[in-house]
Amino acid sequence: MAFGGLDIGSSGVKCALFGECGRRLALARREYGCLAKDGHYELDAGLVWEKVKEVLREAAEQTGEPVSAIAVSAIGEAGVALDTKDRVLAPSLLFNDARGMEESRFLCERLGRRRIYEKTGNAPNGTYTIEKLMWIKRHAAYYREIEKFFLFEDFIIYMLTGMRGISYSLAARTMAFDVVEKKWDKDIFEAADIPEEWMSKVYPSGSVVGTVRPRLAEELGLDRDTRILTGGHDGWCCALGGGMVDQRTAVNVSGSCETISVLLDAPRRDLFMMESGYSCIPYIMEDTYATYGLCLTSGSAVKWFRDELGGGRSYRELDESVSDRPSGIIAIPDFSVSGTPHFSLDAKGLFYGMTLDTSASDLFRALMEGTAYQIRMNMEIMEKNGLKIPAIRTVGGAAASPVWMQIKADIWNREISTVEGGEGGVIGCAMLAGIAAGAFSSLEEGAERLVRQGSIYVPDQKYSGYYGESYEMFREMFEWKNRYA
Predict the structure, then answer these.
(1) For residues 463 and 410, is the Cβ–Cβ distance under 8 A?
(2) Are 79 and 149 contacting, i.e. CB atoms less than 8 angstroms apart?
(3) Helix (H) or strand (E) holding 106
């Protein structure tokens, strides 16, 4: 009997299936692109659904045995509107889409920024689902046709099962969910003038919502009794897949965005957290909370470099071209949206220190250094305010790059480890599905079976002085840019 995870990202979907002994039996993935133009970033939910079916079919074929349970994780904020016939009405607005800023200000005027943060664990900034829905109501004709509204986790669960259910951790990304009471917040919906009844029922992560529709099970090669579970926000499922099952481990999730994720000892919504943009979110594990610092343009900036300046080289070839010495360039990697501690939907990136001797490979290394500097800045803010940053594991794209991992170890001056396979999101979901399948009795046991430590990177003290000085320059430039640019 197999079990596994389905992870829906902003640029692709993955499915991995495992056996009861913890051995991976299948891995399938598909890519898709978002639609980007004039500050608008959208995702075609219909295309995502087609790719989900493809990876499920391929994974089932690879496995060759019945699949007992699959948990679903997904990107946050982006919503999917369906009409009475379950047709997708329009592309989904992604978190970094510029629409929603004015609506965010309106909500703050109605309810107060501090009150919203206390209830939802999120500081209003224009990126959240409820803010996007308010924009849709004001500007999009299809608003009048909406019958149901989903995020991508419950959208895929609904398409697979015909039943509705969303995890606490993803519901929290709407900024319309009470993170302590763990229910939709009526005051937010009333102030936004959005129907609460459009939303799915909320569940803890790892809850069985339904079984695969019979005809769809036959089409995908799945057993009719395959259970579909809530997983959660993809960032938190990645953290779980990196082994964050207690406060002894923090996880650096390194995908299109870059985060440093830590468990909290209680739901904290301190003033410094609100001012720095640190969310307080129900974590995947029952009755726990977590927060993260983030750089919102990390892997996406590296991908931009590969596509625009990389000369057709692969990531591995670009890594091999990079010097083992610091680049000598300060890169502010805010090429799309700036993350914490200064959020902006109108961010701009920056390279400083270029000369006629600067090579393309120097710029590539500088981007990797810049994201590491920004996460170091967040770690210092967290630790200064009593949040613990214990042993760090990295999951995601950067974990496959020895160059980037060594840069992080050197700039953070911390030992860092990776996870074998690097697919944190599907591993985290598989841990949840494994409990439902009876393979594990707890997430801790699931971590012991599925989370295997990979390479370890130790700081090279040869460059500690240089990186210390460069970090101070980065921080000054980052503060200047956010104050005056």
Answers:
(1) yes
(2) yes
(3) helix 101-111
Q: Are 291 and 262 in contact (CB under 8 A)?
A: yes
Q: Are 53 and 220 in contact (CB under 8 A)?
A: yes
Q: Is the backbone peptide bond immediately before 341 cis, with ω within 30 degrees of 0?
A: yes
**Angstrom distances, CA of residue 322 to CA of 96, 233, 255, 348, 485:** 30, 34, 20, 25, 30
Smallest Cα–Cα separation from 306: which of 288, 294, 321, 318? 318
Q: Which residues of the chain have pLDDT under 70?
A: 483-485
Are the C-beta atoms of residues 84 and 147 closer than 8 Å to each other?
Answer: yes
User: Which amino acid, 367?
Assistant: L
Residue 471 CB neighbour total at 10 angstroms? 20
Gyration radius from the chain CA atoms = 21
The pLDDT of residue 98: 85
**Residue type for 135, please?**
W
Tell me whether strands 12-18 and 2-8 are parallel, antiparallel or unpaired. antiparallel
Q: Are 306 and 315 contacting, i.e. CB atoms less than 8 angstroms apart?
A: yes
Tokens at 314, concatenated: 């692969």
Global pTM reads 0.94
